[in-house]
Structure formats: C-alpha cells, structure tokens
From TrEMBL:
Belongs to the DprA/Smf family. Residues 75-280 form the Smf/DprA SLOG domain. This is DNA protecting protein DprA. It comes from the Bacteria. GO terms for biological process: DNA-mediated transformation. Pfam families: DNA_processg_A (PF02481), DprA_N (PF21102), WHD_DprA (PF17782). Residues 341-394 form the DprA winged helix domain.
Amino acid sequence: MQLTDAQRLDWLRLIRTEGVGPRTFRRLVNRFGGAAAALDALPDLAGRQGRRITPPTRSEAEAEIAALARLDGRLIATGEADYPRLLAQVDAAPPLLALRGAGILNRPAVALVGSRNASTAGLAFTERLARGLGEAGLTVVSGLARGIDARAHRASLPTGTIAVMAGGQDRIYPASHAALVEAILREGGAVLAEMPMGWEPRGRDFPRRNRIISGLSYGTVVVEAARRSGSLITARYALEQNREVFAVPGSPLDPRAEGTNDLIRQGATLVSEVAHVVEVLGPIIERGPDAEAAPARGRPDLAEQPDFWDEIELDATGADCDPIPLWPDRETAGRPVCEDEPPQPADDRARIVALLGPSPVGTDELARSAGVGARTVQSVLLELELDGRIERHGSGTVSLVSR
C-alpha cells in the first residue's frame, strides 16, 4: 500500500483529532472504508454523545507536513513499505510516524533501555552490550533519554540505532541531546516520533513512546531499573506484544537494580553477555516478522502497571473517557510540565556520587561517565573515602558503601 498525498492528509487530520488514538482510528477507517469518510462522519457520531469534535483543517495538516519536510522528515503509514513490519503487528501501532533518517526500520532490532540516573557500571555494560549487539547484526532501539538510553545510542552509532522521541520531531527531549540526534542521522540511523510537530513531551507521552520502542524490537533488554521505573513499562509492553524480555542483574544493595532483579525472578532472561541475547533472538529472527508468534513461556507479570490510553468510545452509551488533545495549538492551558526526567546533579561531586554504586568501577570510566577530569575524580574520591562512603578494591576500582 502507498498513500496518495490526499490520503496522507486525511490520515493525519483523523489521527490528530482530539480523542482519536490508534485503536479508534482503525475502528473508524474500517467502519467507513477510509479516513476521508471517517472525517465526514465523525462530527455526527460524536454529537450523539453530546461532544463537539472538530478535526484539524487541511491547512493545519499541510503545515505540519511542510514543517517536517524542512527537517528532511516525512510521514510513513501502516501498510507502506517503509513502515516497520514488526511494529505494524502491535495492537496500538501508530497509524502515522514521523521519520527522519535512513531506511533501517525493517532490520532486526533489539531495545536497550534503563535508568536515567544510571551507575557507571550500568553505563559501561550498556556500551559493551550495544556494541556487541550491533556487531551481531542487530539495530539498537532506545528512547533518547539520559543515562542508559543515550549510552546505548552512542555505542551503536557505527552499526545503526533508532531513537524514538516522546515529543515532536522538532522538540528534542532532553534538549542537550540535539547533537546526539544529529549524530544518529549522520551515521545512517533513524529518529521516529508519533506526536505532532511542536509537541512538548509530557509525562504520559513517555509510556506511549515506550510501546513503540518495544514494538520495533524482537526483544527488550532492561539494564537498570528501580521498582517503578519507566523501563518496566517498556518491558510490560514487550510482554503484551509477545516479545522477549531480558534483564541485566545488579547488586541487591543498589535500588537501581531492584526492578531488573525482579524481572529475572519472574522469568525474564538473565543477560550478562551479548550471547545471552543473540542465542534467544536468533531463531525468532530467522522465522521473520510475519511468522506466527511462539507461545509465551515464563514471563514476568507486570499487570499492575497502568494503562496509558484514553480514547473516545464512539459506540459507547453514557460518558466516555476524557479526550487527549493532539494538536499543540489547541491546548487550552499552556504546555503541561514534563515529569519524566529527574533533576540532574548540579556539581561534579554530586554527579560522581550519583554514578557510584555497590558494584566496583574504575576511576577512568567514572571520569568519562561524569564528564570530568581524572584529577577531579580523585579529589572527590578522597573526600568520600575520608567520610567512609567508598571502598577501594583491586585494579583501581571503587564502590559506594551502603548505609
């Protein structure tokens, strides 16, 4: 299937209509035989429930497409050749995706996600894992966040990486990762966004992004995650999509490992080297994206994780759920505050302490992760040692003493 320009405009107007998410979009298109007919019928259907729904105008949709084109981006639709076949199998797959970059979306991929306040040990292992997975022929998918995500993207630049954004293509979050986005594009990777141009990401947009990350991938590897980490939501979506879930074990003394250790206890595949991922995914990839999914084996139970989809129920009686405005200019109360990113340490000492954990790490790696010189690291470590907060090990490694 290849949409005409007119059809693409209709698809964009329909999916940008308030309260129309991926599932409602498909129901409308299937019911009326196309997006144009659904747009004509939508005001009457919504009016029966006492709602007033007005789709974006053609000029608004054309403006979004033009703005995306100025960034060398374009919209791809489910069913088109460039749309990721694996993602298209997901129940709530976006009907349209804004794409910038090369056509690597249908290469075998694995998601690599984890803590934003990552430890130095977690960052170092992420780098090793991402490089190894890339060398094994897998594209690394992640969410462009600080910590594990950013390290996964950087380590897999030479072999191919896909970044999935929570906001619009022109709203990189965090803004400090603009250079990373340019590097991904320059090295032949891809950047995807579901939300409109101009959309500032909100807290609830990150779980939506996460189901795209897992949907693009044959499996999801969680490196570090606290018990209520957003990375566990990615794992939950992977389970719902019948994809593999992997977890890297960590010290039971480190809160950043509580979520991953729980995943392993509940049945996720333990990962301590690249081969542990490749051995599991190899046979699945050989069957191809269109093969019938294998029956779920021992899988973690993440049913308590909340659902993040509110869509209008056009056939429902009584009150329906609250709509989610998807057109930035139609926001009535200004930009919501994004709650996904934790505050960043303000000084060198705080950054170094945040990167330490119960697992021993080398001072060189600590300096690289903190973005400071070796002399600064040694000075901070001396202060921490005098305060009884670190323990020194062989080969110049140190660890944080649990209190």
